[in-house]
Amino acid sequence: MDIRTDDFYPTRLERPTSSFERLDPVVHSTGKQRSDGPLSETGLAQYERDGFLVFNQFLDQTIVERFRDDLRAYEQDDGILRSEGTITEPGKQEIRSIFGIHELSDRFDRLTRDPKILAMVHQLLGSDAYIHQSRINFKPGFHGKGFDWHSDFETWHAEDGMPRMRAVSFSITLTENMPFNGPLMLVPGSHKTFIPCVGRTPEDNYQSSLKKQELGVPNDTDLDRMIERGGIKAPTGPAGSLIIFECNTLHASNANMSPWPRSNLFFVYNSVENQLAQPFCGNKPRPEFLGNRTNTTALQAAGPRESRRTG
Fold first, then answer.
1. Per DSSP, what are the bridge partners of residue 52?
2. How many CB atoms lie within 10 A of CB 60?
3. In this structure, which topology does domain 20-271 adopt according to CATH?
4. Are 180 and 282 in contact (CB under 8 A)?
5. Which residues are CB-neighbours of 248 under 8 A, at least 6 positions away?
6. Between the CA atoms of 12, 138, 122 and 306, what dihedral angle is there, to the nearest 10 degrees?
7. What does the pLDDT average to over 92-105?
C-alpha cells in the first residue's frame, strides 16, 4: 500500500515499523479557552500525563436507572437485534454492542449535549465537536467477552480516515465497575506514542473486528514496553461514573467471569476541524454508525432537562 502524503500516522503496513512520538497536542485549547473550562489545570495536567480522567458518580442514580431501563428494552427488541449496528458475541445471539445509540435514544442524544460535558470537550479539543461514534457496550455476567489491547485512533485513522489525534471518548458506567466484571483497563502515558500496526486491512473488516479485533492491535513487544513504562489502571466505581480518555490511549478489558453484568454508554467527540478523509488503509469508508460523515455540524448544548447530577 502506498503511503499518502497527508498520512501523518502510517499503519497497517507490510512489515513492522518503529513506534514514534505523537505529532499532535494532547490538550488542544490554549490561553483563555484552556483556563475557562470546567476542568482544572490540575485535571488538564493529569489528562496530558496519563491520557484519561475519572469522575465517580457523575450521573445521578435516577438517570442511570432510566438508561438501564432503556438497555433492557433494547435487549428485547428484535428490530434492534437484527440491525447492522448491533454486534453480537462471537457465535452467540447475545448483544455485545449497539452502535449509533445517540440516534436511537433522545435521552442519550441529550446526554451527549450536556452543557458541562460539551464544555469539557471544547476545553480538550480546542474547538466545537460532533459525535464521531456512539454505542452501548454490554458485558453480561459469566458470558461477556473481552476487548483486546488497542488504540482507537489507530482504527479510526486507518479505517475511517480520521486525520489527526483530536478526538476524545466519554464512557459512563451503567453498572458498578468492579475488578471482577471486566472493567476498562488503560495504560497511563500510552497516548503519547503512536504504534503502527502490521497487516493489510480486508474490506468490511469491521464485520469481524467488532466481535474480536485481531488486526490493528499492537504487537507484544510494543505492548510490553508501554505497560512496563506506564503500568495498567482499571478504574472501578459506582454506576454513573465517567471515564474520559484520549483517542490514542491504549485500552482493553477482560472477559466478565463474574455473575455481575457490566454495561456502559460510550460516545466519541471529534473536532469539527478534524473531519474524516478517505480511509488511510485504502478501503471504502466504514458504515456511518461507525464513522459519522454526515451529521458533522457542531453540537449545541441541551437544555436543563435530564442531565448530570446537580449536587
1. 245
2. 16
3. Jelly Rolls (2.60.120)
4. no
5. 22, 51, 151, 152, 153, 154, 165, 190, 191, 192, 193, 194
6. 160
7. 81
At residue 283, what is the residue type? Answer: N
**What DSSP character marks residue 259?**
S
Which has the closest alpha carbon to 72: 276, 308, 261, 240?
A: 261
How far apart are alpha carbons 212 and 254 in whole angstroms?
A: 12
Q: Is 269 helix (H, G, I), strand (E, B) or coil?
A: strand
CA distance 309 to 55: 12
Q: What angle do CA 208, 277, 118 make, to 5 degrees?
A: 85
C-alpha to C-alpha distance for 207 and 195, rounded to whole angstroms: 23
Instruction: Give the max Cα distance, the chain.
Output: 54
Measure CA of the first residue to CA of the last residue in the chain; give whole Å.
54
**pTM > 0.90:** yes
Q: pLDDT grade, residue 308 (50/70/90)?
A: very low
Residues in the chain: 311
The whole-angstrom separation of Cα 219 and Cα 198 is 9
Cα-flanking dihedrals φ and ψ of residue 223, to 5°? Answer: -60, -45
What is each CA distance from 231 to 21, 186, 234, 236, 266, in whole angstroms? 18, 8, 10, 16, 24
pLDDT at 304 over 70: no
> How many other CB atoms are there within 10 angstroms of residue 153's CB atom?
24
Please tell me the distance from the alpha carbon of residue 96 to that of residue 170, in angstroms, as a whole number: 18
DSSP 13: B
CA-based radius of gyration for the chain? 18
Cα–Cα distance for residue pair 120/100, rounded to 1 Å: 22
Residue for cell digits 507490510?
Answer: 14
Assess contact for 7 and 154: CB atoms under 8 A.
no
* Average pLDDT of the segment spanning 26-42: 96
